[in-house]
Amino acid sequence: MLVLQEFGYDTRFLPDSGALEELDGAHLLLLAPPTKQITRRHMTVLALLRAKALDTGIPILELVSSSRKIEARGPIEPGGVVSWPCSTEELSKRIKETLPTNSAEQVRLVEQ
To answer: Which end of the chain has the smaller Cβ count within 10 Å, N or C?
Structure first.
């Protein structure tokens, strides 16, 4: 999150609270790979965030830790997937490609 802020993005981490109003004003939802075991509640929160993002036209960019997972899954929503880890420059490039033109670069980061 801090590295993206250094690249000029207004990046905010969304807690695992499911507060859908946290997406208000966002122009991109960035889903990071999980760092811990995924719970049923966490999956529910992710589904709600994805649904709100799609309903409001916010593109979703998902970081996935395996190229095999990318191939199996494919881009399932606007924005698609990025193999993780990748360089900050590559991530910034993909964010710029995904953001709507002329939008403020407001990114919300969620750990999957």
So the answer is: N
The helix/strand/coil state of 86 is coil
DSSP 88-99: HHHHHHHHHHHS
Nearest to 11 by CA among 92, 94, 108: 108
pTM for the model stands at 0.73
- Percentage of residues in the chain with pLDDT exceeding 90? 0
Q: Which two tokens stand for residue 67?
A: 């190229």
| Domain regions of the chain by residue span | 2-111
pLDDT at residue 70, rounded to an integer: 47
Structure tokens at 17: 């609270």
